[in-house]
Amino acid sequence: MKKTITPFFCLVLLLLLVSCESLSFYSQAIRGQLSILGKRENIQKLIADPATDAALKQQLSSILEIREFAEIELALPVEKNYASYVDLGRPFVVWNVFAAPEFSMTAQDWCYPVAGCVTYRGYFSEENALDYATSLRQKGLDVYVGGVAAYSTLGWFADPVLNTIINRDEHRLASLIFHELAHQRVYIPGDTIFNESFATAVELEGLKRWLEKTGDVAEADLLFTQANLEQRYRREFVSLVQNVIPLLEEVYNSGLPEDVMRAEKTALINKLRQDYRQLRQGWQGYSAYDAWFEGDINNAKLKTVATYFNKVPAFEALLAETDFQLPDFYDRVDALSRLGGEEREQALARLTP
Question: Do the domain assignments include residue 327?
């Protein structure tokens, strides 16, 4: 009860201290979050209800097994998280708006209580997100709107399972839950690379243990190999996009007329699409990033693809140092989180193989 009431009243107080534009944003955020909380249905009751669809019952039963595994085997703070289910009746829970100048790779950022400063603004309504995106475009900015299937409230509320993720393969669903629960274990406001790298390391270790326990040896090896392949494809995708950014920055810093810069920007983005098609030929039919390249590509969209996971090897090395004892690993990560930014970066660099 305390965790439910305290953040709500903190947000209400915040509304009294912000501008009209911010008031509108935080109002929709509170309404959106409270709407999700109000629609939560207990998973065990849904499973026991004869009216619940059989396929959904099976999926929800898997959730209970994943929760138990995360708590007992991975020492993650499950508490009441993912013990309830919400069907939002839409494909995404929130839509994030990203923005950057037309001739700059410096993304706009927004700062929030608890989460710190991030390079997006989230809306529970796609219409509201698109309206805000339009207002930014009218200021001459490059804008990108992307849907989000899940997020963590970092322990402020008991996060439910959403319809936006429930249809994933069981091992992918387990990976997602391990990742989001890791954010509740350690989270540094404003340090996205640390947070995402840590959560990804926990996700991968958790997935390995989950597959070893729940599948036969051959199936577990196959699925874990596929998961590692997908991690490799993600790194290659990120690297491909990151390589074009300095080329664009060179154009933007050239002092050329705007129409010339615009033409060179278009040429570089077209080359990026061509390079992706060539890269994908070695991906054994994996197509998760096809839609990203089919849509419009601009500075805002490019900046959503950051090297958020490049510290994963450091956390994996730390996990090995602690002999894969997760409570000891978390203690070491806690100690890292208390360091200043520069000192923390140096510590992670020393760990990186």
Answer: no
The answer as to whether 111 is a domain residue is yes
At residue 23, the pLDDT reads 74
Task: Read off the tokens for 97.
Answer: 């708006």
Are residues 149 and 110 in contact, defined by beta-carbon separation less than 8 angstroms?
no
Give the other-Cβ count within 10 Å of 166's Cβ. 17
Domain count, the chain: 1
Q: 19 pLDDT exceeds 60?
A: no
Instruction: Return d(Cα 316, Cα 314) in angstroms, integer.
Output: 5
pLDDT band at 114, cuts 50/70/90? low
With cut-offs at 50, 70 and 90, classify the pLDDT of residue 7.
Answer: very low
For residue 37, give its domain range.
2-169
Q: What is the C-alpha to C-alpha distance for residues 58 and 276, in angstroms, rounded to an integer?
A: 38
What type of residue is 97? V
Calculate ∠ Cα 59-176-8, nearest 5°: 95
Residue 330 included in any domain: no
d(C-alpha 26, C-alpha 333), whole Å: 32
DSSP label of 115? T
Mean pLDDT for the stretch of residues 85-105: 96
Element (H, E) at 86: strand 84-86
> Any idea what the Cα angle at residue 115 is, between residues 109 and 117, rounded to 5°?
20
Burial class of residue 250 in the structure, from the number of CB atoms within 10 Å of its CB (0-12 exposed, 13-18 middle, 19+ buried): exposed
Please report which residue ranges of the chain form alpha helices under DSSP H.
2-15, 20-38, 43-48, 54-72, 126-137, 170-185, 192-214, 217-252, 258-280, 290-294, 299-302, 312-321, 326-337, 341-351
Burial of 318 (0-12, 13-18, 19+ CB in 10 A): buried
What is the C-alpha separation between 353 and 351, in angstroms, rounded? 6
Please check whether residue 85 lies inside any domain of the structure: yes
DSSP codes joined into one string, 248-288: HHHHHTS---HHHHHHHHHHHHHHHHHHHHHHHTTSTT--T
pTM of structure: 0.84
**Of the candidates 172, 288, 304, 313, the residue with the CA atom closest to the CA atom of residue 233:** 288
Residues shown for the chain: 353
